[in-house]
Amino acid sequence: MSKEMERCKELRACADPHYNCAQAVLTPFAEAKGMKTEEALALTSCFGSGMNMGSVCGAVTGGLMALGLCGKGGQENCQEFIKRIRKNHDGMINCRDLLRAMAEKGEKRKPHCDGMVFEALELVEKMLQE
Question: What is the pTM of this model?
Fold first, then answer.
């Protein structure tokens, strides 16, 4: 397990304070790049729960921020990241849609969201190696 994934799991396991999905994905990469933890957490604080309105999943926005921070930003990589996430989730990337589908399957929110976070982090790692 990478040190970024270990840190991500540590953040997601913390109940107080709660770290949102975007925070859990970006922070490990930001820390590795020398950004202060507080800055990474502040930067991503408004991106949980689909920007607090059910829009694009925080794990997705955190992943996109991580790609940009690590020098893999740009339209092509952004589109590829989103394409790969959509492929795994019936075309969905919006928090409200993902949560609705999760509820219809009888799944619980915390494991679902953790799964999205870990998937996004792993995808960032993979794309950074490509």
Answer: 0.96
For the chain, the DSSP string reads: --HHHHHHHHHHH-TTTTP-HHHHHHHHHHHHTT--HHHHHHHTTT-HHIIIII-B-HHHHHHHHHHHHTT--SHHHHHHHHHHHHHHTTT--BHHHHHHHHHHTT--HHHHHHHHHHHHHHHHHHHHH-
Q: What is the pLDDT of residue 108?
A: 96
How long is the chain? 130
What's the total number of domains in the chain? 1
pLDDT confidence band for 32 (50 / 70 / 90): very high
Structural domain including 14 reads 3-129
Alpha-carbon span 14 to 10, nearest angstrom: 7
| Whole-angstrom distance, CA of residue 77 vs CA of residue 82 | 9
